[in-house]
Amino acid sequence: MPDRSEITESGRPWADLHERIEASDAAGAAEALADFSLEDQKLVMSHLPTEEQALLMESLLAGKAAEILENLPDALVADILEGMPTKAAAGIVEELPGSVGADVLREMQTQETEAVLAEIDDPEEAEKLRTRSEYPWDTAGGLMRTSFASFSEKATVGDVLHELGENAERYADMDVQYVYVTSATGLLRGVLRLRDLVMTQRHSPVADVMISDPVRVGVEDDFESLRSTFEEKGYIGLPVVDEAGVLAGVVTRQEVREATADHQTEDYLRSSGILGGEELRSMPMLVRCGRRLAWLGPNIVLNLIAASVIAMYEDTLQAVIALAVFLPIVSDMSGCSGNQAVAVSIRELTLGLIRPMEFIRIVWKEGILGIVNGFVLGCLLGSIAGLWKGNVYLGLVIGGALFLNTILSVLLGGMVPLILKRFKIDPALASGPILTTCTDMCGFFLVLNLASVVLTKLA
Amino acid sequence: MPDRSEITESGRPWADLHERIEASDAAGAAEALADFSLEDQKLVMSHLPTEEQALLMESLLAGKAAEILENLPDALVADILEGMPTKAAAGIVEELPGSVGADVLREMQTQETEAVLAEIDDPEEAEKLRTRSEYPWDTAGGLMRTSFASFSEKATVGDVLHELGENAERYADMDVQYVYVTSATGLLRGVLRLRDLVMTQRHSPVADVMISDPVRVGVEDDFESLRSTFEEKGYIGLPVVDEAGVLAGVVTRQEVREATADHQTEDYLRSSGILGGEELRSMPMLVRCGRRLAWLGPNIVLNLIAASVIAMYEDTLQAVIALAVFLPIVSDMSGCSGNQAVAVSIRELTLGLIRPMEFIRIVWKEGILGIVNGFVLGCLLGSIAGLWKGNVYLGLVIGGALFLNTILSVLLGGMVPLILKRFKIDPALASGPILTTCTDMCGFFLVLNLASVVLTKLA
After folding, report:
1. Which helix H or strand E contains A182, and what residues bound it?
2. Which residues on chain A are in Cβ contact (under 8 Å) with B357?
3. Which residue ranges form the domains of chain A, and what is each CATH number?
């Protein structure tokens, strides 16, 4: 076991907490945990096995447990809640902020989600959570908050301000920057800015102050369209309506920004070979092994395909064994060059500065760069190879192969993300393996084929 | 040249715009550009060489130019402004939202920045821009907005609401969710929530409603401390004070979120070998070549060091040429396994779920995973090697090398980001090259050394 005494940062007695857990004194442990700083609570929770996490949370008051869990990744919280009695899990979900609750429910197994929802006391609340958790996390329906202030189209500015003032408590948890105006059947009619309300005569009907027929988004609108809507105009928040036009929630610029960050995290993890969502080291070992192997397995096949090129040239290699030293260098350096081009393409796609069919631009912009960089790198590595063995032909073969393979890999690296995007495949996930396999194959082929052409001069 | 007729998406006559640019009819071109959709304007701008971008922007009204530039990456806007007459550039900077203006000035050469600031009409505005642009972009001073509503501590709620109502126009561009209360000398005294104002009797002094001695951040506070402050509490915005305690600006949760996303983008670009900030394909070719080579150069050295292991075992390789096929596979597969561990460590560091000295946890959690995955992958590749040449020893050498190297690489991959973080080196930048070099070296060494031990059985 890891030495747990190392973990605490705030000087709190982690050892004491640990002893209570060992002694199965869950209540005592929960009490000790509640005294920790938020940072330490996060650390402690992430270092316990799932069963102990669940036991600890169960012993806390639901409100306190929610406060701790709120700051942990959704995937981890979902695992913890799944390990708890349904009733206790439901109690915690009720205490979580609406958006976090729905995100966590989405991460749980469908069956568990339903069981928890059935235990939630307020049926209206349960329905809201169900609705939100059923939309993909990055759509308007998945991102929207379902608590918002709405008023009848017949109200006056004074009515609205009075209501907000009288029932301040009710609105305390909402982010009341906009107030919505709806018809008797809930159809969205207009938006009121709090600022405008304050600055208007109290007896004016809201209809005079509201922005009529406001910009809105649909529950099923996807992330790309949300982001471009928020980017194009300076909105802080937008109303979300269902198919019938009924106001279902509110999505804010901040939530879209957070979703952007989450997308980038997902891209980073995928491009590093972490599939199936978040991996945390507190997750069960076999789950972690299995998910990582799911990525490594296909990669081993791709590697075998690339290396089969070497097998075809065993005779050449046998004759000039020095080539074996340069095979991995040429393939790896080309891979690095290609990855740079991949990153620039993904970035330009994200920023909307290139479109998925602009291959000519890539050929033009990456091609020249590939010629320049390929030449520099080729001369460098070629000189080293030539000087090392005192054979100018070896230098030409190695330098030439790196030169050509660099051009090829930047072209490929620039284009692959565009092609994948066009076919709606995640560029962050698939660009790397495709690029590496191709540049490895071509790198091996170029070195060995060029060498076999001048074999008599090399041996 | 790329075929520009391919580019337009909204059916607008790009060809027409192109003709006007060719004919040096900048005014006509600017007019045509103004008709494009925002998406197309971004595309068009990013596809022109820098001089043409500058010429086009110069011909537009400053307000229109600012509207277009606002949505482009800061680095690109800085390049464009540097290519324009100082007077025209200053006009555009004045029209950009304050935060964007300061970000762009920060990206420009110091000399150019000063020249532009000197041309700005309003000296107070120029001073604000200079202040903001002098702080690093991810500190409170660099992120804060400098327009905010503040009132004397002697005012009443009615005064504040009256002022906001009367001068609605003045506050229209600000994000008036909080109103600040300051002393006569500008010292921060308290924060008023708009919501509380609305819900309070008009004659109350603001001092009764305000949150006294509010949480604040200092202009020099760095990103990590800002993020944890916003994360720990649910603040929407926080006042920023200078060394003397004078209110200097306001930083919002949204801005911190955006900075988080920007940091992740920077990490992604760096880990892909794009240094020196953003690379866009509209940038000058030699700048792009140079920056990419700055990363590739050190990499070629690392590659040579790793491959030198192969050179030391030329005799072994000569005797069993089949080993050459498996050298790149073993090193590449180990690299992939190690990269997965790197990604998980970086993620856990970001989430605050691990601390930079927890090596024992890594040894424990990655070690077991490495044994399991190494065993699976080793058996797989070893079987293939053994069956291919019908030599069980070859299978044992290759499988054993991959098994051991996988364990080593996940341990190393898990630990390197922690070590780098501890020494304040960017893990995203340096983890990859360090890991790859080590796993390559060890992979080559294990394959060739194990092979030389059983050489008589292999040959």
Report:
1. strand A178-182
2. 6
3. 4-134 (1.25.60.10), 150-253 (3.10.580.10), 285-458 (1.10.357.20)
